[in-house]
């Protein structure tokens, strides 16, 4: 229900005494604050109608998810369910926010003040609010500093830094203040924290060219040694790579090469650890060792060690064949959700994403036909009549005729439309009960960023030259539930991928018309080429036709290209499935190349 802005003003907000309401919380962050406000809202007899509406506004602001790495859009909705989502800054009228600036400035708690001031800056562009928000973020970060529960502190430092950097010359002094605070925090921990606080702090300092990179390398090596001692080899690998980056900044080639070698050896140790662990075994070990071999090949002088590791990889790959087990799909939706989450839970990020990519596959064209005719037998009248097909704006864009008893070719529109409907039902179940729960599990555990995904897709021959950054941004947005961005980026990247794959296999992607004009062939034509069939298979081509271009199907490519899909439509199952499909194609083709390189 929309907020009633006639009831929300500084006087009414002051009357609820927000600082006093939240003084007894156990942890001083917005999520905890929101939980407290939700609890207080339930006592309706305690509040006037105006105060209840103010509490609703406060909770809407507190529930937004901070995305500190995204300077332009730092807040996302806490949840997205179908066409519903939680609040974002754009939901609040600018003038209404500006009228609350004096109340926001009066807040005592730095976490509260930072959040409301930042929203005021993002939506209403109040420069005083931005400056005050940076200082409040710093105070909140110092209060939340903890070596184990590090993300809360680090996110606020990063947001303060990116916000001050975005203020131009007017924020230069603030930016230096934040960088000095980050450096001071790093000096307190010096790589002795048990997780990733030092790593994130060093990465921020390197990005903004502040501090002593040689000293940072020493801290990274301290953290890497601690991680190896605790058999946390993924963390060790990350810290060794960070040390290599620090050495590179100061031109110490020997130190850089040694750190890269240690990083690759950490993956070797993780592979052997995975091999011995129940539930991971030879298959996980082989996948990790393949990454280790590729990393070792990039190290100067590492070819001999890579060849040695390759012998071990062949043994693990042979053993992994016995690990393959059929996956049953005879679950109700609850069981499917549990199964999907369990498939990615407690796994390193790369294994979890690989499990997500292999969680589904294109529906069989033959099975779709069988389902259509099974339904026709059960409901014979329904199959006799034609149906109108509408786009997202309710306009009739096609008519599907009745089902011909003799129709067996999917080019028959009556059969194809009904097959698409069956495929859509399966897609919806797959997204809601498997793919989206697994994505949420991975997001909560790892919050995949550009660097994580770049290492997973870097060898994919299906990514067109010059498109890697666009693909990465689309994939990161999807992982973080930002389907407004992913929905706009995924269909054109899938089309570019099809065009590139067809061309790389020798197919023709353009026409030659009189006068030397060479227009590009449409996506529909490209998907009908032998090269597309060879690359994607009959089931995969049918799925792409349904998902992207056929008016009888989801038709996402054309809905997006013509601006017909509204904001709510971008959070639908078809857009999510298209995002997952792009992720699957990029990751799986990259892994195939890595495997071939290992052989």
TrEMBL record:
Q: Which domain of life is it from?
A: Bacteria
Q: Where is the DUF7380 domain?
A: 6-173
Q: Which InterPro entries match?
A: DUF4209, DUF7380
Domain annotation DUF4209: ranges? 494-583
* Sequence intervals crossing the membrane: none
The protein's name is DUF4209 domain-containing protein
Tell me which species this is from.
Answer: Deefgea chitinilytica
């Amino acid at each position: 229900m929309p907020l009633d802005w006639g009831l929300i003003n500084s006087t009414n907000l002051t009357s609820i005494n927000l600082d006093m309401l939240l003084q007894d919380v156990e942890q001083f962050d917005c999520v905890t604050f929101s939980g407290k406000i939700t609890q207080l809202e339930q006592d309706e007899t305690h509040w006037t109608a105006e105060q209840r509406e103010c509490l609703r506004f406060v909770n809407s602001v507190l529930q937004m998810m901070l995305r500190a790495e995204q300077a332009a859009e730092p807040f996302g909705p806490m949840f997205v369910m179908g066409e519903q989502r939680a609040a974002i800054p754009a939901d609040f009228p600018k003038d209404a926010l500006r009228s609350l600036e004096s109340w926001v400035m009066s807040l005592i708690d730095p976490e509260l003040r930072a959040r409301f001031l930042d929203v005021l800056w993002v939506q209403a562009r109040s420069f005083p609010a931005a400056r005050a928000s940076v200082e409040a973020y710093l105070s909140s970060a110092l209060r939340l500093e903890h070596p184990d529960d590090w993300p809360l502190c680090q996110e606020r430092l990063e947001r303060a830094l990116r916000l001050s950097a975005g203020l131009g010359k007017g924020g230069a002094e603030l930016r230096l203040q934040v960088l000095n605070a980050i450096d001071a925090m790093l000096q307190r921990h010096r790589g002795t924290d048990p997780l990733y606080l030092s790593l994130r702090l060093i990465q921020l300092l390197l990005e903004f060219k502040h501090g002593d990179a040689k000293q940072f390398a020493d801290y990274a090596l301290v953290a890497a040694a601690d991680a190896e001692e605790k058999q946390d080899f993924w963390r060790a690998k990350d810290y060794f790579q960070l040390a290599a980056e620090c050495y590179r900044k100061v031109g110490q080639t020997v130190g850089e090469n040694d750190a890269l070698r240690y990083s690759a050896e950490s993956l070797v140790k993780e592979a052997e650890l995975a091999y011995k662990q129940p539930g991971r075994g030879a298959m996980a070990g082989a996948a990790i060792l393949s990454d280790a071999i590729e990393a070792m090949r990039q190290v100067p002088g590492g070819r001999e060690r890579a060849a040695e590791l390759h012998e071990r990889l062949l043994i693990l790959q042979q053993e992994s064949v016995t690990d393959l087990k059929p996956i049953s799909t005879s679950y109700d939706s609850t069981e499917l959700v549990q199964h999907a989450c369990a498939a990615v839970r407690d796994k390193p990020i790369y294994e979890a994403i690989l499990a997500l990519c292999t969680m589904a596959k294109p529906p069989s064209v033959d099975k779709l036909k069988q389902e259509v005719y099974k339904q026709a037998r059960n409901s014979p009248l329904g199959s006799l009549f034609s149906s109108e097909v509408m786009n997202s704006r309710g306009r009739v864009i096609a008519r599907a005729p009745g089902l011909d008893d003799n129709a067996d070719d999917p080019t028959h529109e009556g059969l194809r439309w009904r097959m698409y409907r069956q495929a859509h039902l399966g897609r919806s179940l797959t997204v809601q009960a498997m793919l989206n729960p697994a994505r949420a599990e991975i997001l909560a555990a790892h919050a995949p960023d550009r660097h994580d995904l770049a290492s997973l897709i870097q060898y994919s021959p299906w990514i067109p030259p010059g498109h890697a950054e666009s693909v990465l941004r689309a994939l990161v947005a999807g992982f973080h539930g930002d389907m407004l961005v992913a929905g706009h980026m995924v269909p054109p990247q899938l089309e570019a991928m099809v065009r590139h794959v067809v061309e790389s296999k020798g197919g023709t992607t353009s026409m030659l018309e009189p006068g030397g004009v060479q227009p590009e062939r449409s996506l529909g034509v490209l998907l009908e080429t032998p090269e597309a069939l060879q690359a994607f298979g009959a089931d995969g081509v049918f799925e792409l036709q349904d998902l992207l271009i056929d008016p009888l199907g989801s038709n996402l490519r054309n809905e997006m290209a013509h601006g017909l899909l509204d904001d709510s439509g971008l959070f639908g199952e078809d857009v999510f499935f298209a995002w997952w499909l792009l992720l699957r194609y990029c990751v799986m083709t990259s892994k195939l190349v890595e495997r071939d390189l290992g052989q």
